[in-house]
Design brief:
mainly alpha; Farnesyl Diphosphate Synthase; 2 domains; EC 4.2.3.57; metal-binding; lyase
Length: about 220
């Protein structure tokens, strides 16, 4: 903690507090193993974010394959899905966390869809600031193709990975069906955030309406 700059200490302490509170709650149910998996996923996420920061500082543009290997983790979906299981009911077992830790196809497909849709929608804004090279830039540089061609290819990749998600969610598996909904629901968010424009950075009336309907406006009964 003492090695951190002052502006990071408060944030890091709050993260530690959250995990301590989670540990206390899980200990009462004998489920502290869940937090061990969550912590390892946070560490892996952080390592990949730091690698992207290194690329920015060195002005390094990785190959498309190298970029996607890191982006599947740094996009944050595996971390969010892992955390969504920590306090769930008895449907979640240690096998669930082992399954998540191995990045099954449905996780990789969800992460890839998010990364590609995000990069297509945000590339213009990100070029104007010091940001890690997007998947669009990496692909264009490596294969010497136009942005239009890259977008067409990425649209096909997104479609193909939706097929992977459909296949993985329908085939027999030892993972209970309700638990498969987390990666599916997370990737559905992409359509709201990045179809047509960057609604995450520039939230308009439609996005504000979604947020209000979810968190503010009561549901009529």
């Amino acid at each position: 903690m003492d090695m951190l700059p002052q502006y990071m200490k408060l944030l890091y302490q709050e993260i530690l507090n959250v995990y301590k509170e989670a540990e206390d709650l899980l200990e009462k149910k004998g489920n502290t193993y869940r937090l061990c998996y969550a912590k390892e996923t946070v560490k892996e996420y952080t390592r990949n974010i730091l690698l992207e920061a290194k690329w920015v500082n060195e002005r390094y543009i990785p190959t498309f394959e190298e970029h996607m290997f890191v982006a599947i983790v740094s996009v944050g979906y595996p971390l969010m899905i892992m955390l969504s299981y920590v306090h769930q009911d008895d449907l979640v077992t240690e096998d669930t966390f082992k399954w998540v830790s191995n990045y099954p196809p449905i996780f990789k497909a969800s992460s890839l869809i998010f990364r590609l849709m995000d990069d297509i929608a945000t590339r213009k804004d990100e070029r104007e600031r010091n940001h890690v090279a997007s998947s669009v830039e990496c692909y264009m540089k490596q294969y010497e193709v136009s942005e239009e061609h890259t977008h067409e290819l990425f649209s096909k990749l997104i479609e193909d990975n939706w097929k992977v998600i459909n296949k993985e969610s329908l085939r027999p598996t030892h993972i209970p069906g309700p638990l498969l909904m987390s990666p599916i629901n997370f990737v559905h968010v992409c359509d709201i955030l990045y179809t047509g424009s960057d609604n995450f950075t520039h939230a308009g009336k439609e996005m504000i309406g979604y947020i209000k309907s979810l968190l503010v406006t009561p549901i009529s009964v």
